Predict the structure.
Amino acid sequence: MSDTIRTDAPPEAAARRTGEFLPKLQLTGDHDLCPGCGEPLAVRTLLEAITDVGMTHQCVGVIGIGCYTALTSNMNVDLIQALHGRAPSLATGAKRMRPDTLFFTLQGDGDMASEGLQEVIHTAARGENVTCILINNGVFGETGGHMTATTVLGQRTKNSIEGRDADYHGYPIDMMAMLAPLGGTAYAARGTVHDAKGVARTRRMVRRAFETQLRGDGFSIVEILTMCPTGWFIPTAEGPGYLDEVLRSVHGTGEWKRDGELLTQAAVPPGDDEDLLA
Amino acid sequence: MTTIRGTVVIAEERCKGCELCVPACPPDVLRMSERRNEIGARVPELLAGCTGCGACLLACPDFCFEVYRYEAPQEHMPGGDA
């Protein structure tokens, strides 16, 4: 054991703590989601971005229905629970009554793309001043692990057990390609949490989306690709690789629209990737 | 002798043994130990050479890592306890 370093207590030598266990707005690290799940990482970027833009005192989340809903009891933010897929409409009404408050929706791909697709399309087209966070793992994790509208071709789920087949199941919907061109959309980006750089970049995307909303520029959306090893029938350690190879091949990451300008090629948000905790 | 620029504290009781921190570590100084926590999950352990970059903290879905950077780099002697 002598070649390992003690990790049960802070170091004795002079050291600076550069990264804390929990984001400031998170109450506890205990949660009941599966090992290897990417959703707690997505929620981490969200909570840190709220702190980054200084709106911890005046922020309301509208929550969809999915595994991530179980994380809401860990979040030290005011929350409204929406019906399945209806979070963007609920956020629209609440934002119009409280224009100075930061509003975000937290929805999964099953919630946003399968159950409530028209809600988010109309909210984007109207240019509502809210931020939607879409957590996309290509599977209805909470309600049994079946296919969603964003499940990529070849991906295995409970009801596409041989892999999604275009002839039988149809094609996946690329949410960014659909929402970014709408006139009311001011900011659209797709991040990933399959590696540390992806998490750091996603945090900057969410921060930019919130800044877009605070400037009053219109609708902003950040889609976050997350691992679901349980729903994908793979060992937890293979989750990030599967996301990178399979999900990212269809759902490309990067910024799709910035300051109302459609980007022809999805761009990586600028920033210093060397310092991950900045 | 290995230079150590940072270190981590691991909340082993929260770990679910998903192993995502092991490939996430750029200097490759995390590995899964044979030790198990209360829920029966194997927990990671730290070898000499941590840079304090924080990649493990960002990759861990169970909030098990706290990251420190030493004011002055430490030297780790093989066989000694840092």
